[in-house]
């Protein structure tokens, strides 16, 4: 096996984010006034790559952008935060993906995604771009999400698995059950509690006991996988099989009551920050407990600023609020 680069490769989406600040969500057929409008750069793949870069870890982005204003801004944005762009493709005549976000005062939101170049993959393709495949093989970790076609993720995850590259899949994105073909190549799968239903192919997980039971069944069926569960205000958990038993480790979320100088602004991208931060800790060789704690801190700081990309904290921000990491 070739010597790997101490690096995380991120294959995924990049989009222009358009935020509409509203008092409430509109009803069907209703026209609603927005009391503010903001633009930012987002997309789950890009958010995670920028998180890795801002936290000081080497990262290479594998993505498709349009040769439009958003695409050009993105190339500068990546470079500003030390995200490698040599594997970013600029597609002529195509628009970069877009996300339209209705953002409420309490920080919650609803999102509509237009795939654009994130969807411009030939469904007849039988293998991944050779330069992308090499970048994956040569990296220690591959980060995936579900805002690009599933067949692309399957190809990438298979290459990574065969090369001994750790594969972390953030389940956010496509609202469809995960394919068994993709699951077999994943090392760590990271849903939130809603997305967990896409993983286990079962709805109606209402209690802690429901979640614990179904995650246990999923891991015993797929013993190679670790489930990294994002739980919002309840923190995060990781489940995995060890010596024939399911091990469950949880860490609580951080509270604004303990940080009165901070406030909730926007939850967009918090899960991406968390997953990117966890990947950084895996690259650094940290244990799961310290990785969960650090990732909770990064996700917490992300929601104190507006917009996914600009809100992503640097390691210095984490250390300023929580001390040396």
TrEMBL record:
Q: Would you name any one GO CC term?
A: cytoplasm
Q: In which pathway does it act?
A: Carbohydrate metabolism; D-ribose degradation; D-ribose 5-phosphate from beta-D-ribopyranose: step 2/2
Q: What SUPFAM superfamilies does the record tag this protein with?
A: Ribokinase-like (SSF53613)
What are the residue boundaries of the Carbohydrate kinase PfkB domain, all occurrences included?
Answer: 7-314
Positions binding substrate in this chain are 15-17, 43-47, 147, 272
Q: Which InterPro entries match?
A: Carboh/pur_kinase_PfkB_CS (IPR002173), PfkB_dom (IPR011611), Ribo/fructo_kinase (IPR002139), Ribokinase (IPR011877), Ribokinase-like (IPR029056)
Any GO BP annotation: D-ribose catabolic process
Q: Does the keyword Lipid metabolism apply?
A: no
Q: How is the cofactor bound?
A: Requires a divalent cation, most likely magnesium in vivo, as an electrophilic catalyst to aid phosphoryl group transfer. It is the chelate of the metal and the nucleotide that is the actual substrate.
Q: Which residues bind ATP?
A: 192, 230-235, 271-272, 296
Q: Which reaction does it catalyse?
A: D-ribose + ATP = D-ribose 5-phosphate + ADP + H(+)
Where is the protein localized? Cytoplasm; Nucleus
UniProt KW Cytoplasm keyword: yes
Q: Which domain of life is it from?
A: Eukaryota
Q: Which residues bind K(+)?
A: 266, 268, 302, 305, 307
Q: Which GO terms describe its molecular function?
A: ATP binding; metal ion binding; ribokinase activity
Q: Which residues form the active site?
A: 272 (proton acceptor)
Which co-factor is required? Mg(2+)
Per the record, the major location class is: cytoplasm
Q: What class of enzyme is it?
A: transferase
Q: So what EC number does this one have? A: 2.7.1.15
Q: What is the role of the protein in this entry?
A: Catalyzes the phosphorylation of ribose at O-5 in a reaction requiring ATP and magnesium. The resulting D-ribose-5-phosphate can then be used either for sythesis of nucleotides, histidine, and tryptophan, or as a component of the pentose phosphate pathway.
- Say which family it is in: Belongs to the carbohydrate kinase pfkB family.
Q: How does it assemble?
A: Homodimer.
User: What's the protein name?
Assistant: Ribokinase
What organism is this sequence from?
Answer: Halteria grandinella
């Amino acid at each position: 096996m070739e010597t790997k680069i101490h690096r995380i490769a991120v294959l995924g989406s990049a989009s222009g984010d358009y935020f509409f600040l509203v008092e409430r969500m509109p009803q069907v057929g209703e026209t609603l006034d927005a009391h503010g409008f903001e633009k930012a750069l987002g997309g789950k793949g890009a958010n995670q790559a920028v998180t890795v870069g801002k936290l000081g870890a080497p990262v290479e982005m594998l993505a498709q952008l349009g040769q439009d204003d958003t695409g050009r801004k993105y190339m500068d944005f990546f470079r500003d935060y030390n995200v490698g762009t040599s594997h970013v493709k600029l597609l002529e005549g195509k628009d970069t993906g877009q996300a339209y976000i209705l953002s409420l005062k309490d920080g919650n939101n609803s999102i509509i995604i237009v795939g654009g170049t994130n969807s411009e993959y030939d469904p007849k393709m039988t293998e991944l771009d050779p330069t992308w495949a090499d970048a994956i093989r040569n990296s220690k970790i591959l980060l995936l999400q579900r805002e690009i076609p599933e067949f692309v993720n399957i190809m990438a995850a298979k290459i990574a698995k065969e090369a001994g590259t750790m594969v972390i899949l953030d389940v956010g994105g496509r609202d469809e059950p995960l394919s068994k073909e993709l699951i077999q190549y994943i090392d760590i799968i990271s849903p939130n509690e809603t997305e967990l239903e896409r993983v286990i192919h079962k709805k109606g997980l209402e209690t802690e006991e429901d979640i614990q039971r179904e995650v246990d069944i999923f891991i015993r069926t797929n013993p190679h996988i670790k489930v990294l569960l994002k739980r919002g205000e309840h923190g995060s958990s990781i489940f995995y099989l060890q010596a024939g038993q399911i091990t469950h480790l949880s860490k609580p979320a951080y509270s604004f009551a303990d940080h009165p100088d901070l406030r909730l602004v926007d939850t967009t991208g918090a899960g991406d920050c968390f997953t990117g931060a966890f990947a950084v800790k895996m690259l650094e060789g940290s244990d799961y407990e310290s990785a969960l704690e650090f990732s909770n801190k990064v996700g917490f700081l992300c929601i104190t600023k507006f917009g996914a990309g600009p809100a992503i904290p640097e390691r210095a921000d984490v250390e300023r609020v929580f001390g040396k990491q």
